[in-house]
Amino acid sequence: MAWLQLKLLSQADQAEHLSELLTDVGAVSVTFLDAADQPLFEPLPGETPLWDNTLVIGLFTADVGTEDLIGQLQQLWGTTPLPSYRWEGLEDQDWERVWLEHFKPMPFGKGLWIVPSGYTPPDPDAVNIHLDPGLAFGTGTHPTTAMCLRWLDRHPPQNKQVIDYGCGSGILAVAAAKLGAENVLATDIDPQALLATNDNAKQNTVTDKIQTFLSPAMPDVSVDLLLANILAGPLQQLAIHFARYTKTGGELVLAGLLEEQASDLMQHYSQWFAIDIDQQVEQWICLHGTRLDTPACETIQA
């Protein structure tokens, strides 16, 4: 079946209403896209932030009467003109095949692979993580995740206690477990991430090594390695917590920050960690730190 997409350029405060109206006039689905390359930072639970300039895209069957539909939409919208819009055709495709063409087995370092369903591991003797994209972030395709995976490949956490903070799909937790970690605590603010992490742990037969927690329910533990692939803002705010979670001499791997954010973040973390840049891919930075023998208390300057 062929499809038509109606794309409307709206302001953030119009997008939800437009979505409802598109559904009312028969849209099969409605999607929001960024129209101006504006970053959105990690939302709190229950928040759905939108871009200042948002493309609202309604999907319709190809036989829809476009002029009549625009007339209905305008009537529901009111007396002011509809936001700028255009129709585009969408060729029918085998979407599973298209996905498989774009997400193939990927190596990270010398002995670690991410292998999606439907593929035979290219290197059966490697540590192969079986993973499919889901609703949670983390497939290994983004530079920040890739840098963390390469760090783990170079430094397998054999018999270590590990935290994956902001676990998303659980890709780093699973990698740490399959690379020999004794146990991994995976935490996130999004319950969907914990579901994805548990599913991927089961798929990779490491459920005995991974425990999941919503971030506010994280136990008071002290670990050998803390991994956090999130964003610079939360990394800044969580520094003192990460210092408490990490044993003296333990290691810290931070990703999700941009080159221009690295200096300030490193200065902040230097209160508790000997920290430096480990890798850089394009504008993305991965930091590595070693926990100093300094107290993590509120009296230290934040």
Explain the overall architecture.
The structure is a single chain. The strands form 3 sheets. This protein has a 7-stranded mixed beta sheet. Strands 2-3-1-4 form a 4-stranded antiparallel beta sheet, covered by helices on one side. A 3-stranded mixed beta sheet has the order 5-6-7, covered by helices on one side. The model is unreliable at 35-51 and 298-302 (pLDDT under 50). Helices cover 30% and strands 31% of the residues. It has helices spanning 12-24, 66-77, 95-102, 143-154, 171-178, 191-203, 232-237, 239-245, 259-269, and strands at residues 3-11, 29-34, 53-61, 85-90, 106-107, 112-115, 127-130, 161-165, 183-188, 210-214, 223-229, 246-258, 273-281, 284-291. It folds into 2 domains: 3-36 and 46-92, Alpha-Beta Plaits (2-Layer Sandwich); 136-291, Vaccinia Virus protein VP39 (Rossmann fold). The chain contains 9 helices and 14 strands. Helix 4 packs parallel to helix 5 (171-178). The chain is of the alpha/beta class and 302 residues long. It is elongated and about 70 Å long.
